[in-house]
């Protein structure tokens, strides 16, 4: 982890130890249909689910904006070692290490931000996404639910490696900017697409 700008392990937010995918368990308890993607696309009224909007958002801020499942975690762990940028609370990174993946997770503002509400689940390097991506070309670059800013495109442009895991919505959704998806379309070849559980109204994938 040496050499990353803004260096050091971010420790101002208490570390919570994970032993299971508690996020998925809590999401299924809140809305069992989150694991049925076909049903999610068909839902149009769903007043009961809409009435739980704040609960959905609180879970997303507490854990992650994408809901991991075993298939996705196993596939990503197989691409270890990994550098995750914009990792938020480090929830995905923590679950990946339970599968013996070697993960360095970074975020410019770990834990507490407009998108996360702590605690952290991983020892996170506080660093800019592009700086982190540039430093580790030998690791798989992982970007999960990047905000609609230039963060994702800058990280991708700085990365000199050849393995990328993107988790989020497609072009036109709530992740990244058009230039990022244009770069994916022209410079990268998709080798796998994995379905993950979804909150109502969200259409993300790995």
Question: Layout of SSEs?
Answer:
Elements: E1 9-10, H1 22-30, H2 37-42, H3 47-50, H4 53-62, H5 70-77, E2 82-85, H6 91-97, E3 103-107, E4 124-126, H7 129-135, E5 140-144, H8 151-158, E6 164-169, H9 178-187, E7 204-205
Parallel strand pairs: 2-3, 2-5, 3-4, 5-6
Antiparallel strand pairs: 1-4, 6-7
Describe the structure.
This protein has 206 residues and is of the alpha/beta class. It is built from nine helices and seven strands, in the order E-H-H-H-H-H-E-H-E-E-H-E-H-E-H-E. It has a seven-stranded mixed β-sheet with strand order 1-4-3-2-5-6-7, with helices on both faces. It is globular and about 45 Å long.
Shape: globular
What is the strand content?
5-15%
> Stretches where pLDDT falls below 50 for ≥5 residues?
1-14
Number of helical runs?
9
Radius of gyration: 16 Å
On the 0 to 100 scale, the average pLDDT is 85
Derived from helix and strand composition plus strand pairing, the structural class reads: alpha/beta
Largest sheet, order of strands side by side?
1-4-3-2-5-6-7
Straight-line N-to-C gap: 26 Å
Determine the fraction of residues in helical runs and give it as a percent range: 25-40%
Order of helices and strands: EHHHHHEHEEHEHEHE
Annotation, overall tally of beta strands: 7
What kind of sheet is the major sheet?
A: 7 strands, mixed
